[in-house]
Amino acid sequence: MSTNVFTYGSLMFREVLDRAVIGRYQGVSARAHGFTRGSIAGQIYPGMIPDATQEVAGTLYFGIEPDDLARLDFFEGEEYERSAISVACEGGRIEYAQAYIYLFPEKLTQTAWIPKDFDLPQFLRTYCHEKFGT
Questions:
Q1: Of the residues 55, 76, 81, 95, which is catalytic?
Q2: Which domains does the chain have, with CATH numbers?
Q3: pLDDT tens sequence across 56-75
Q4: In the annotation, is 76 catalytic?
């Protein structure tokens, strides 16, 4: 059974998603209410944790197939737990999705993680290459 996946960090970038999964999936801008996103000390990617007063902008991908969901679980690793959440899409439509919640909030810094400042080329050369050899 396929599932929707909300992404808020490196997987928001099509170049990263395309290395992590085999299928091609439609994505739309969405927001997860009740969460905050922060930089992780020593990493170039973020973590998302619950925070009732905040919201996180990201990309919602539709219909991720089970094999690709397993690839995303591998990509995210043991510091994240996949959980069911609801997100608001453009226009206010609510969709249900899986999202990777960061399990170590004490490792988040006070520095906001800003997608436009993400060093995509470095991430592709290092993390994606280590995980997938691509």
A1: 76
A2: 3-128 (3.10.490.10)
A3: 999 999 999 999 999 999 99
A4: yes
